Amino acid sequence: MKGPSAWTVFWRTVIGRAYPRIIGAQREKSWVFFEIFLPLLSVTAYVFIYRAVQAPPEFIGFVVLGGAMSAYWLNVLWSMASQLYWEKETGNLELYIVAPTSRMAILLGMALGGVFQTTLRAVAIIAIGTLLFHVPMAATSVPILLGVFVTTLVALYGMGMLLSSLFLLFGREAWHFSNLLQEPVSLVSGFYFPVRALGQVVAAAASILPITLGLDAMRQLLFPAMLGDLRFLSPLVELGILSGLAVVFLFLAHRALAFFETLARREGRLSVRGQ
Amino acid sequence: MAMERRRGVTWRSFRTATWLGWQIESNWADPFVFAIYSLVKPLSGALILVFMYAVIAKDGLGSPLFPGVFVGNALFIYVPAVLAGISWTIMDDREHYGMLKYVYAAPVNVLAYLIGRGVAKALVATVAVVLTLLLGTLALGVPIRFAAIDWPLVAAALVLGSAMLALFGILLGAVTMVTARHNYGVGEAVAGGLYLLCGVVFPLDTLPPWLAAVGRALPITYWLEAFRRALLGQSAASFAGLSDVALVGIIAGSSVVLAALATVCFRLAERRARAKGLLDMQTMY
Does residue A37 sit within a domain? Predict the structure, then answer.
């Protein structure tokens, strides 16, 4: 008896892994509170800092956009990078390993589901933030803006897939590592202020994180006059670098998954819980 | 005799939980990595504020608002640490380690146990708070002068504030006991709200009046004000008419009310959790 082709299995796996994040998550309505309302609180706190020092309204736009994009970074950290650690803790990882499917398909399904879930949250933050704080946004080039946004996500989730493979070896340190990468990345990627303020050298080093360049390019395209002296690189150059990062991260994720899975099997770390 | 035995159980529960909490917090890495981990997060949070002020405030870090904001942000490190530390213990023990039911089966004072677990987080937070304040004083021009610090006010704020935060944590622990696991814990969620409402990083009057009124009803706002007065010798315009004694009185009074509320809510949540079989619930969706 002939079974489904490898291609069919690949896409079934992608859909199967994305399903709980796209459909399943909607059954637990509390996500609206935890995923939209809570991030909005921290965004609002940063908005009031700028209000307290009477910053131009565009800076409030920087914060709202940074808050929306930070949702993707948090999703990459907690729902991509740490995911295989959670799966190990809940006993699912062994099932993934023994299933006759591609592990890349599982990661891709996680990423697509995560992008969908987080886009709802990011759109809500931008919509509510813009309405609540009267942010003046005017896109200078919608195609480039969309290109930057999509390429940022591909590169970012490629990075998430790479981290996910790396975290296969981790125990409790996976949780701490994700926790550690929140505030420092908010700082060096300029989530709440233009990254150029950190200086060219730090901004260049932080460009290894796709969200740094993505945010800077999107701010330039949405608030062209305001960013002026604070722009890091031109949006087209940033788009080019982001495209390169996307290819590199996806390639590395593919190689790393095979390598770290073999290593984790050999060292018996795939089924160790409560470490 | 029975009273003495109860005291013994309470002290042992507290002491053992503190030690256990410290082990859970720290033994996943070697001490050097753990030290870096404990400091990088809070220092990064403080530096975000520094750059926001440096980029936009008219006088940069010389802005008259900056010292109060910096000190408020540094002291606020305690809030998520203790609130989340205590409430997340319920979740961690129940769903990650599967130990909560054994804690209840053992001769343990659960409230003392939870506070002990929070103490471990508070110890790590203390190092972060001190180093953040040192960074502010030595490198960013925050005018904290050792000789001019109002130590009695610091001591009162520290003791009463610790009790108040621990009681807040117990209250949230009661909520956690009867709710499912979410991406964020209830402790982090509430800490996020308090960060906005308590005027941690901007003067309370910047908020719309109805939100500022909510902030004025929260004891943590007064706790932060006490520390600003003690360390900087300056008070926020919103609290200029309030004496130091009144400030300490508000924090003490709130702690008494919180103690009653937290104990009642926690006992009710415990009863409900036992009745509904929630002590070993698994909700890792």
Answer: yes
Residue B284 resides in a domain: no
Residue-wise pLDDT for A42-55, tens only, equals 889 999 988 888 88
List the 135-154 stretch of A: residues with Cβ below 8 A of B.
none
pLDDT, one tens digit per residue, over A85-143 is 888 877 888 888 888 888 889 888 988 998 998 898 889 889 988 898 888 888 888 99
> Could you report the predicted ipTM of this complex, rounded to two decimals?
0.85
Q: How many CB pairs under 8 A join A and B?
A: 108
The reply to whether A7 falls in a domain is no
Let me know if residue B281 belongs to a domain: no
Is A29 touching B (CB cutoff 8 A)?
no
Q: CA of B149 to nearest chain A CA: how many angstroms apart?
A: 27
Q: Do A45 and B200 touch (CB under 8 A)?
A: yes
* Residue A126, CA distances (Å) to A31, A66, A76, A130 in order: 17, 10, 19, 6
Q: Can you spell out the DSSP letters for A106-144?
A: HHHHHHHHHHHHHHHHHHHHHHHHHHHHT-----S-HHH
**pLDDT one-digit tens code per residue, B40-80:** 888 998 999 898 888 877 777 788 888 999 999 999 999 99
Residue A53 lies in a domain: yes
Within a domain: residue A75?
yes
Question: b/e map of A116-125 (b: 16 or more CB within 10 Å)?
Answer: ebbbbbbebb
Q: Which residues form the domain of B246?
A: 2-276
pTM of this prediction?
0.86
Total number of domains constituting chain B: 1
Mutation site, A183, A209, A212, interface B, largest B CB count within 10 A:
A183
Q: Is residue B99 part of a domain?
A: yes
Domain assignment of residue A206, given as a range: 31-266
Residues of B (19-48) whose Cβ lies below 8 Å from A: 28-29, 37, 40-42, 44-45, 47-48
